[in-house]
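User: I'm putting together notes for a lab meeting next week and I want to include a structural view of one of the chains we've been expressing. I don't have a solved structure, so I'd like a prediction I can at least talk through. The sequence is below, exactly as it appears in our construct file.
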Amino acid sequence: QVQLVESEGGVVQPGGSLRLSCTASGISFSLYSMAWYRQYPGSQREMVAHITPLGEKTDYSDSVKGRFTISRDNSKDTVYLQMNDLEPDDTAVYFCSARLTPRGVITWGRGTQVTVSS
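Assistant: Thanks for the context. Below is the predicted structure for the 118-residue chain, given as structure tokens.
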């Protein structure tokens, strides 16, 4: 059974930092592209960061470029999202995802709430 488990999010002040992690089980992790999405209330999920299976390539949405860093440790079946210089607009539910092929089925984590507020 494929499972993605995100770490707890939390409440952070503007300008602060937070690192999310997502650990996978039930898949050959190093074969999967991984991504972080976020979702605002009443909106669709949007991808914020993506990393290829061996970590050789990363992509970011314009809204987080330069502030967020995605990385992975294939020996631990874990992907990370380091979020720096957080802004109130970063407040959302963050989801980890795994995908074997570009058009393949996406497996989702349950999501974790990140709130940026003073």
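A couple of points you could mention at the meeting. The chain has a mean pLDDT of 96. The first strand starts at residue 3 and ends at 6.

User: Perfect, that's what I needed.
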